[in-house]
Specification:
Layout: E1 32-35, H1 61-84, E2 90-93, H2 95-100, H3 102-110, E3 114-117
Parallel strand pairs: 1-2, 2-3
Length: 132
């Protein structure tokens, strides 16, 4: 099987040179915080709360509210916990967050977080047409 051209060539870990962490550390932790915007007018891909009688509804307010709570409250609690410990995170962020929640995006930028693209808006990617 031929790998797609954007992939790295195969390299077995046993054939690579030894790599050491700074100051003799034995473990590295990469903190990645997903910051997503879900569209209330589309079905939620994840349902933590079942809908009445098991019938899917749109808008799915109870499940969408998890996202809304995260953007209004949860993010700020996590942000403060990282800030007080002088830890910078990477955010896997939907591009639409920068427009819809500029205060959140600005706080991460000013704190020196690394930004990693995570699509335009959160949704079920397997339902989108191939955009290559």
């Amino acid at each position: 099987m031929r790998l797609p051209p954007e992939r790295f060539d195969y390299s077995a870990i046993v054939d690579r040179p030894r790599w050491a962490l700074p100051r003799g550390a034995r473990i590295a932790v990469w903190t990645i915080v997903n910051i997503e915007e879900w569209d209330i007018e589309k079905p939620m891909a994840r349902q933590y709360l079942t809908t009445p009688q098991g019938v899917a509804v749109t808008p799915d307010v109870p499940n969408w509210a998890w996202h809304d709570y995260g953007m209004r409250v949860g993010f700020w609690r996590l942000f403060e916990a990282l800030r007080t410990r002088k830890l910078r995170a990477t955010t896997a962020i939907n591009a639409s967050v920068c427009h819809s929640y500029p205060r959140v995006a600005r706080a991460m930028l000013e704190a020196g977080w690394e930004f990693m693209g995570h699509g335009v808006r959160q949704g079920a990617m397997h339902l989108l047409p191939d955009q290559r």
